[in-house]
Amino acid sequence: MKILVCVKQVPEPENAFIIDDSKEWIRPGTFSYRMNRFDESALEEALSIKDRYKAVGIDVISVGSENSKDVIRRAIGMGADAGIYIFHDPVGYVSPFLTASFIASYIKENNYDLIFAGAISEDSLQGQVGPLAAEMAGLPCVSFVVKQEISSDQKSMYVERELDGGLVEFFELALPALLTIQGGINKPRYPSLSNVLRASRAEIRTINSDLYTKSVPGQKNKQLTIPEKKREGYVLSGSVHEKAAELIRILSQKSFIA
Amino acid sequence: MGKMNKPGQKSIFIIAEHNENKVKPVLFELASCAYKIKKYCPAEIKVILLGNETEKLSSEITHVTGLDVVATEINELALFNPEIYKKVIEDLAAEFLPSFIIAGHTPRGLDVASGLAVRMKAACITGIESLGETEGKICFRRQIFYGKIDAHVTADSEPLIITVQPGAFEPFKPENAATGKVETRRVNYVPFFTHEKGIRRSIFQDSSISEAKVIVSAGNGIGEKENLDLVNRFAAVFPGSAVGGSRIIVDRGWLEYRQQIGLTGAQVAPELYIACGISGASQHLAGMRGSGFVVAINKDPKAAIFNESDVCVVEDINKFIPAFLEEYKKKEI
Predict the structure, then answer these.
(1) What is the pLDDT of residue B202?
(2) Is B108 a domain residue?
(3) A233 lies in some domain
């Protein structure tokens, strides 16, 4: 059984994001990056299948700038077998259609039984790349999966997916299929020493996205802005103790504390 | 889009979701969004409903909103099947040529939106929170970079598919809505690849959190599990309080699922909400936006939660709470 896991690197939330002069994207910066948490959960689901059934191979794929290779190496360190990197590094916003179309093109040229992706990326929260790639590659897809089990003949799978409002619904899917995985459903393993050594030496297959056709429906960022304050947003000042005393005063005045 | 449209020819689809024989409330928010779009792009709004027993649902929708409903009865469909939804809505779209298709920013909504976008070669903008017009085009606002930046997104082509963040629009429930038309069709569709197997409730809503007067909520910024003790001591200061948390804290097993606040957990509206080390991703905001008074404590001055707060405390919560408890003790004496 061959599994492909789609991973993305995201900038850490603590980074300062500054709107650039075009107002359409942010200034490139020296951000600290890590693997999208939803993708870590997706990879862990794939690794748990590999732990259970021996003849399972896991490839990871990432689309983006040169440093996307870091998350691919991280994934190999966690236990994936091989990495595929699609080079695509234009200036500015990249539509999820484009990313999905590259992944779909790769899927169509290579046979996988199962494809996993994170349900959303933490930085942009679009939730599109997985379901778009599935549709482009003609695969059935269920998003926000929290539990999966492959049938004994490995031709279908049972999945549970989370809905908003505390409900879980179940499906049976014919393979090959693409699932997007809800974050936090498992504990992604740490890279092991032996795998980290293997990852550092691993040759990552690189594909230039120019090889793939790029046709996407037109949607663009007209403008980026700093979010408006939706409430008063009174900022307390002074030392930590002064701020604490001020908050106590405000909350007492409003009768929240005695 | 926009100004070149002739009235009466265009339509806007709203996709209804339902469970347990009830329409999901986000539908009424989607209706508000559709009416806002209609201001810029005159069109007929149609609620698209799919299921094997649609009569009661259609009646509820049209009585509450006054909108027209196009219901499709499919024996093989109980609640939701992405394969059937995509196929049936694709066919309806070929018939009615909608300029917009609006779904909830929910797992089902995202399955359908992205799938239809590929089939219809349509642009797809997900997780929108508001809309307006710039230079004759409708512009949709959505959060990016952890809510620190708003993107105003336009599309160059029709149709356009959007998903709407739950909680972002007021529910559309006019007082005297004239009942709309319900058109019910029947089709057969046996799915090839994806089969519905049922549904269950996984989180039982706990009244202690939804009825609490004050909620003190913990997020990733608390750092270590041990620091939850601080949050508990902080909460104990407020009569009638409960402790909640963001998804990541619950996923780590530090709090129970019934304490999770956000889109996939409890939606709360206490008189006072104190966010401790919560960044303010839209998923979390959807669960607490209705709160009376909001205090946020976060060491990152750019955290998105501060845009939704009445009082902002830029501090590490692990330093601030001990200081607060000390000052509070002084006051008591």
Answers:
(1) 74
(2) yes
(3) no
Q: What is the pLDDT of residue B203?
A: 64
Structure tokens at B323: 């200081």
Alpha carbon distance B37, B138 (integer Å)? 8
Which residue among A37, A184, A240 places its CB closest to the CB of B323? A240
Minimum mean pLDDT among A122-131, B114-123, B253-262: which range? B253-262
The CA-based dihedral angle spanning residues B193, A186, A63, A125, taken in that order and rounded to the nearest 10 degrees = 90
Q: Which two tokens stand for residue B161?
A: 């598919």
Average pLDDT, chain B: 91
Instruction: Assess contact for A60 and A84: CB atoms under 8 A.
Output: yes
Domain that holds residue A103: 2-211
Average pLDDT value for residue range B81-104: 97
Q: Do B149 and A247 touch (CB under 8 A)?
A: no
Torsion, Cα of B241, B247, B251, B254 (10° steps): -30
Position B206 scores a pLDDT of: 63
Average pLDDT over residues B238-265: 89
* pLDDT at position B134 over 90: no
Query: Across the interface, which of B114, B205, B313 has its CB nearest the CB of A243?
Result: B313
**Percent of chain B that is helix, strand, coil (3-state, to 5):** 35, 30, 35
- Measured between beta carbons, the chain A residues lying within 8 angstroms of B290 are none
Which one of A151, A169, A221, A224 makes the best mutation probe of the B interface by having the most chain B beta carbons within 10 Å? A169
Cβ atoms B110, A128 nearer than 8 A = yes
Q: How many domains does chain B have?
A: 2
Residue A34 lies in a domain: yes
The tokens describing A167, both together, are 């409900």
Q: Residue B85: what residue type?
A: Y
Q: Shortest Cα distance from B179 to chain A (angstroms)? A: 28
Helix (H), strand (E) at residue B155: strand B149-155
Tally the domains of chain A.
1
ipTM of the complex: 0.93
Contacts of A219 in chain B (CB under 8 A): 123-125, 153-156, 160
Same domain, B178 and B106: yes
Token pair 């107002």 is at which residue? A23
Give residue B204's pLDDT: 62
- Residue B126 half-sphere exposure, CB side, CA atoms within 13 Å? 27
Residue B49 in contact with residue B27, Cβ under 8 Å?
no
pLDDT at B4: 41
| Cβ contact A257–B328 (<8 Å) | yes
Contacts of B125 in chain A (CB under 8 A): 219
Of the listed ranges A231-245, B199-213, B288-302, the least confidently predicted one is B199-213
User: For the residues B120-147, what does the mean pLDDT come to?
Assistant: 93
> Is residue A86 situated within a structural domain?
yes
Q: Which of A150, A145, A143, A174 is nearest to A160 (CA)?
A: A145
Query: 């899927």: which residue's tokens?
Result: A107
pLDDT at position B183 = 97
Residues of chain A below pLDDT 50: none
